[in-house]
């Protein structure tokens, strides 16, 4: 399993991904699922991937090596896309290309073509944007009403984002809330685990502000988990007891 | 969709179920999914159901009318089962009976035989017990290590239960935490909605302590939702900002 979240606020973008992969239940490994494509001062793009690792790794390799643009015949890499929309389209073409190359064999082996990708970033001349791509290469874009997108094991960590994130949330708070969301997921699903990769990009910096891997035992994240747990306990204790009393029954 | 939770603590049992059903996305209705079978002083059993409503309603009808015991040939209802284990077995036979009667037609219509049921309660001479039945009629029993079971849309509301519920949690707190878990689910999934049915049973009372339906606008539940949201906001605000700073990069 996997959990990745992208949060797009006024101040910029946060991307968070865990690193746990499993082939079956008993073959657990650590693989990077958060990938950075950057040209400081000109563009900064991060991709977070979920689904079949062989598919997502091939997509990333195609994005480095280049995918042909069917309209122009030119081979384009993610470092050449002129806008974030065109970058998302390119990622979609890379997904399609993997399907063309491997789809039939996967199908014959009974392996589902399962991949989803968050593409977030900013290219000079445009605003920071965040997209979520599906296995067909189609995609949706994050908007200000719901300023986050999730892939993978998304349900455990959704309530805190639904409650707390708005477009006006600061970049630091967005990162903090993303980590709380990741913590909720990790506690309830062993398929999601440390280390956690994070990237933040401040609007118009056109370079990552922070590229960091949180390893097991890292003090801040440990403290965040403890404080969050303690706060939740305190919060439910502070809520009055249910006033419901048995009604007279026939 | 549906969300139901059963919580089994030392003091007794809490069962909570929403009432929203949907046939497709645009046909939303309210149906009771929490059903009580009781004989005060002798037994108190509650069933919460998820899955295809036609299946779960047929199961409940069979449990009222009786299902044949293949070993004895006798027709048994839930009010006759001598133990909670035998009650769970009987529910399993009722599920099986619905499959025998309707399974082929459902299959031909392309409808999955989808049902899951929580069976919780106490019968004189035994302890309170809680079971979760699957569509094949097989079941697992709730234990003290993880003193809750969930069916339906369970992921959104799992983190709070994982963090806060232990076997020593009081019955009032178990109800409160169950309602918080329900609230988290309702906020993140429109397929789960008010009214909410709750039943609590105190150990050895052999009768429900509380049978209540929370309607939209009910003051306590509204207040719980507001307090919980406010507490979560305060909790994440109180957590220090991430200390991560950009490392010198090549």
What can you tell me about this protein's structure?
2 copies of one chain form a homodimer. In chain A, 33% of the residues lie in helices and 30% in strands. Chain A is built from 5 helices and 14 strands. Chain A has helices at 53-65, 84-108, 158-164, 171-188, 219-238, and strands at residues 3-9, 12-18, 20-22, 28-30, 34-39, 43-51, 67-68, 75-76, 115-123, 129-133, 139-141, 148-152, 196-202, 208-214.
Q: Show the largest interface.
A: A-B, 49 and 49 residues
Strand content of chain A: 25-35%
Query: By helix and strand content of chain A, what is the structural category?
Result: alpha+beta
Number of domains of chain A: 1
User: How would you characterize the largest beta sheet of chain A?
Assistant: 5 strands, antiparallel
What's the pLDDT, averaged over the residues of chain A?
A: 94
Could you tell me the radius of gyration of chain A in angstroms? 20 Å
Oligomer: homodimer
What is the 3D form of chain A? Answer: globular
Give the CATH superfamily of chain A. Aminohydrolase, N-terminal nucleophile (Ntn) domain
Topology:
2 copies of one chain form a homodimer.
Chain A: E1 3-9, E2 12-18, E3 20-22, E4 28-30, E5 34-39, E6 43-51, H1 53-65, E7 67-68, E8 75-76, H2 84-108, E9 115-123, E10 129-133, E11 139-141, E12 148-152, H3 158-164, H4 171-188, E13 196-202, E14 208-214, H5 219-238
Antiparallel strand pairs in A: 1-2, 1-12, 2-13, 3-4, 5-6, 6-9, 7-8, 9-10, 10-11, 13-14
Helix pairs in contact in A: 1-2, 3-4, 4-5
Write a concise synopsis of the structure shown.
The structure is a homodimer of 250-residue chains. In chain A, 33% of the residues lie in helices and 30% in strands.
